[in-house]
Design goal:
The structure holds 2 protein chains of 2 kinds.
Chain A lengths: L1 H14 L1 H40 L2 E5 L25 E11 L6 E8 L20 E6 H7 L6 E7 L5 E12 L10 E5 H8 L7 E4 L11 E5 H4 L1 H39 L1 H9 L4 H37 L1 E2 L14 E2 L5 H23 L7 H6 L4
Parallel strand pairs in A: 3-7, 4-6
Antiparallel strand pairs in A: 1-8, 1-9, 2-3, 2-5, 2-8, 5-6, 10-11
Helix pairs in contact in A: 1-8, 2-6, 2-8, 2-9, 6-9, 8-9
Chain B lengths: L1 H17 L4 H12 L3 E11 L4 E11 L3 E8 L7 E5 L2 E6 L4 E5 L15 H5 L4 H4 E11 L2 E10 L8 E7 L5 E7 L5 E13 L2 E11 L7 E10 L16
Antiparallel strand pairs in B: 1-2, 1-13, 2-3, 3-4, 4-5, 5-6, 7-8, 8-9, 9-10, 10-11, 11-12, 12-13
Classes of the chains: A alpha+beta, B alpha+beta.
Chain lengths: 385, 245
């Protein structure tokens, strides 16, 4: 084995440019796999952390008539939860309404939230009472699309519990920046006590957000959805993204492996005399096959070493500074920061090394199998077989 | 004695001139013009958007306030769409999907074909006298016509508008303008009625402009091209089967 490794190393280094071209292509594929997966893992990590902090908390307790996927269920999907079950829960009441910035109508989702809540990162402590208007906070995206800023007043129209129209000015008391579009786009947050008064739905909530101390239990007319279940959609999106981006790096890897395969075929064709000599000197055919397979595998080992030399400082730098994404990519409806910090886990790196080494070994072995069928005398003569 | 009689007569006469007419009587006379047992209307709905104007032509068959059947005739995109209203239920048939959909809840609050009217605006089948307490608050000149100004305050909770103001022609008993208010007193919509024409023994406005007062724009015009009062409408028009015919 040691001899095989020494021979393989000397043969590869002796091959010069041909070796380094193969290693270069393999290194590129190796780095790309780690880079793309690192970005997706970073996005996944950031999206989950932010969504939990801004929207999901430790889970939601939904009114049984409310379906988050059906906006028509907002009208009737609310109710009163008994006091003894309210521990570690923050109520959110949803109602539909319209605002009229600059003479155009914008349909919005009115969200009533407790001023003193601490479960979500929504800056509810910034609600300041105003004599002439209802205090409201909105996200940066909502502020941009409606051209509203702190201190602006805009007319809000809504319906009370009986369907009667009402209208009053709201004043924007804060604009918050978040990576979670589902608490920003088309939404206006106001104190829940105001929303109760405006709609006549005193003490009603559409859903409750649980904090980390909440212990789930069966409550009549309310359904608990755990944090894990709420994050399921996000997991699905990330895994779909991973599958689609895997096409790109598998293609790159295939090109690199094709180069290794071609080099192996050429080596066996051109080094028949050498093969005949090995066999004549007493090496078994399988030992010769092993020698050539190790040569091919060594490309991937070289690629791993060079990949580490280039990748470790590059990826370390990227994980510290992050990568900027265009603002348009944040309109996809899922949490995405304007700067994503890639996450390079040990399993990602070891898995990629294993993928590159094993696949390089396989494509090196396939052409080397031919050696087993060579006639050593003919090989020594260098006759093409 | 003769001075007392004279004083009494002049008091009675002055009271008759000063006291405004009963608002309920005015509303009843308005209903005599506007509400019919049955009617067939061919109309245009001109929806003015920020960039363009769309005209939607339709033919409606109505029986009282509770039943109506509407077929859209133009433009091509809406042609063949049919709408059936039976009391508090509303169905829409779309020829492109060949499906009948019943609208309920929030869907009724959506705009009709992008206009300033919601489906719910068309769903109200109670008379004004049933849901509002009316009183005459003044008289004015509007478009060279002498009008009574009526203020209507909701007496039930489940109405869209808490308050209405109505300008009613004093001789023709046709509303010429209507303002719809929110609970807070904010003006939400304005309806302007014009081209009042005598058809048979009633006066009827052939053009109505519905304007959402919170939005910029010219609102939606509803223009009556043809109208028949009290024609015989076969019962099958007001069945779901008529939607797919």
């Amino acid at each position: 084995m040691k001899l095989a490794l020494q021979l393989a190393y000397r043969n590869l280094v002796g091959a010069g440019l041909r070796t380094w071209l193969n290693v270069g292509v393999l290194t590129f594929a190796f780095l790309m796999i780690i880079f793309l997966n690192g970005i997706l893992d970073g996005w996944n990590h950031q999206a989950k952390t932010d969504t939990i902090a801004w929207e999901y908390g430790n889970g939601h307790l939904l009114n049984e008539k409310y379906d988050p996927y059906d906006p028509f269920s907002i009208q009737d999907g609310h109710g009163i939860l008994s006091e003894e079950n309210k521990e570690n829960l923050s109520p959110i009441l949803l109602q539909q309404g319209s605002i009229y910035p600059e003479g155009r109508m914008v349909s919005i989702l009115l969200k009533g939230i407790e001023v003193n809540q601490k479960t979500l990162k929504i800056p509810t402590t910034n609600f300041k009472e105003n004599a002439s208007a209802i205090p409201a906070i909105i996200g940066v995206n909502m502020a941009t699309s409606t051209n509203l800023k702190i201190g602006d007043q805009v007319l809000l129209r809504w319906r009370d519990k009986n369907g009667m129209f009402d209208a009053k000015n709201i004043i924007i008391v804060d604009v918050f920046k978040t990576n979670v579009p589902t608490v920003d786009h088309g939404q206006v947050w106001i104190p829940i006590t105001h929303l109760w008064e405006m709609t006549g739905l005193e003490n009603h909530a559409t859903y409750f957000v649980a904090n980390e101390k909440f212990k789930p239990k069966a409550i009549k007319q309310w359904n608990y959805v755990s944090q894990k279940e709420l994050l399921h959609d996000l997991d699905e999106i990330i895994s779909m993204k991973k599958s689609s981006s895997s096409i790109l790096y598998l293609l790159l890897l295939a090109i690199a492996l094709l180069a290794v395969f071609d080099t192996q075929v050429l080596s066996i064709f051109r080094r028949q005399k050498e093969i005949g000599t090995y066999v004549a000197l007493g090496m078994t055919r399988s030992q010769v096959v092993g020698l050539f397979t190790i040569e091919g595998t060594m490309y991937s080992l070289f690629a791993t070493v060079i990949g580490c030399i280039i990748g470790v400082p590059l990826f370390w730098y990227l994980s510290k500074t992050g990568m900027a994404f265009p603002t348009s990519s944040q309109d996809m409806g899922i949490a995405m920061a304007d700067r994503i910090y890639p996450v390079y886990g040990i399993s990602l790196i070891l898995g990629t090394v294993a993928l590159v080494v094993i696949s390089a070994t396989i494509v090196s072995f396939l052409p080397a199998r031919k050696i087993a069928k060579l006639n050593p005398v003919e090989a020594l003569k260098g006759k093409i077989q | 004695m003769k001075y007392i009689l004279l004083l009494f007569t002049s008091l009675v006469l002055s009271w008759a001139f000063v006291t405004p007419p009963n608002a309920e009587e005015i509303l009843k006379k308005v209903d005599l013009n506007m509400v019919t047992k049955t009617k067939i209307i061919t109309s245009q709905m001109v929806v003015s958007g920020r960039r363009s104007t769309r005209t939607i032509v339709s033919k409606s068959y109505a029986e009282g306030n509770g039943k109506s059947f509407t077929e859209y005739l133009a433009p091509d995109r809406e042609k063949g769409t049919k709408m059936l209203k039976l009391e508090d239920r509303l169905w829409i048939y779309s020829p492109s999907s060949d499906r009948i959909v019943q609208l309920s809840g929030h869907m009724l609050r959506q705009s009709v074909m992008g206009s300033d009217l919601s489906y719910e605006d068309m769903m109200e089948d109670r008379t004004l006298a049933e849901i509002y307490d009316a009183k005459v608050v003044g008289e004015e000149m509007l478009k060279d016509r002498k009008v009574w100004v009526l203020e209507l305050n909701a007496i039930v909770n489940d109405v869209s508008y808490a308050k209405r103001k109505m300008w009613v022609d004093q001789t023709r008993f046709v509303p010429l303008k209507e303002e719809l208010y929110a609970k807070s007193g904010q003006l939400l919509k304005q309806v302007t009625l014009s081209e009042v024409t005598q058809i048979g023994n009633r006066w009827y406005p052939k053009k109505m402009n519905f304007k959402d007062m919170l939005m910029s724009g010219n609102g939606t015009d509803f223009i009556v091209d043809e109208i028949q009062f009290d024609p015989k409408i076969p019962a099958h028009f007001f069945t779901k089967a008529a939607l797919k015919k």
